[in-house]
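User: Structure tokens for both sequences below?

Assistant:
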Amino acid sequence: MRIWIDAGHGGTDSGAVSGGVKEKEITLAICQKLTKQLTAQGFTVAESRGQDTYLSVAERAQKANAWGADLFVSVHCNAAQNTAAAGTEVLCYQKGTESSRLAEDILHFLVTELHLKDRGVKERKDLAVLNSTKMPAILVETAFLTNEGDRKKLNQEQDAFALAMKEGILAYLGVDEEELSQAEMRYETLTQVPAWGQPTVEKMLAKQVFADPAHLDLSRDMVRIFVLLDRYGLLG
């Protein structure tokens, strides 16, 4: 399962700003935590941005499509002139689709775990990250930066926002954390391979053994076998 995490805004695009807090900073912080949590569960995760850089919305969709993502999760903060406006909502291209199912599951956990007002799942057909992506895609409006209570949660409960979204993804996939923890870990890149197996895998990469060096798709048992073969000089 390959999941694309999209931290909204970035670089010259600050997004909403309220109370001295910039949307681009909140979204990046939450997405970094979400990526870490999903990776720890064994998912293969990529990000639109891992730092304060600018990408157009079209670039975000194009990169996720090219990477072959199975799910696309874009994270934003809401804002309104009415400072009483509060709560969380999740956007999808069309209701009654896999995207809306994912949106509903993530919304449920955000409302339940962060005690946010439920603003529902809403259709948005005008957003590139929803209308130009080839996989189930959603945009999470985590909470309102312009509302004092919501802004406090966005500042202080970023781990909880990430956890709620991770649990929503697991619910959508129909698995729980115990099931995932027992699933076989797979390694896509050399850096993901355990340290004891990296020298062997590095040799295999140098010999161009793998069809796609960027996506090794190695299990732990496969790495063990390769290490044993290497020790006996059977890898060539």
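Moving on to the next sequence.
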Amino acid sequence: MAQLSITFLGHASFKFESDRGTVSYFDPWLDGNPTATMTAAEVDKADIVLATHGHTDHIGDCYEICRQTGAAFVGHYELCEVAMQVGVAADAVHHLNPGGSTTIRDVEITMTQAHHSHSLSDHVLPHPLPEGVLYHTGGAVGGYVMAYDDGITVYDAGDTCLFSDMQLISQMYGPRVAILPVGGKFTMGVREGARAASLIRADVVIPCHYSEELGQPADIEELTRQVNILSPGTDVVPLQPGQTLVYTASSFAVSG
């Protein structure tokens, strides 16, 4: 039976493991993250690393994990160019922009739009810059749809506000699990997150990008109440760092 394990690593960082054993790290910010339960050095296996944008709390340890495990890196064009300059093998780098797709092992990855600020944290840049290389601080900001061969599809919206085309993403890709930021300071908040859930209509919504530690508290009970009204077929499943949700054929279980 089709199954996907989703482990919350803290803040907006996740680990996905498919039933075929493909391990993906999504926006892995581990070192220096006050909510993380592991460090980058503890990552001993990764097949794919995905980055939504270049802010520290998302690009985080992406490149380091790729270098130490040989994982493929997926990101927007500018982040991919940086990846190759900091030691990620060129044949492991998958350049995307919103609307583009790439297939790695048993998952097709499509970058979606998101609405957020653009910058690139300088801790990931090579110093000094190679001669003739110019890095733009911007680049795309996106989310990702991850469609596994076994039929399970996940939509992680990345850092974004609410936008009406989330309904189109739902119609196009039919995600069964949606991961949504709800901190309400640098991303959408509880009210907007509940409306986003009603547009996406996934079986499960996992809220992220909120915590007292990072000054972005969110009332998850209120989120659940609103989602129950706006999208009664959707379960809100908050995870603590280190907890794993196992999604199996329209059902789930939480462990840890």
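User: Anything stand out in the second?

Assistant: The first strand starts at residue 3 and ends at 10.
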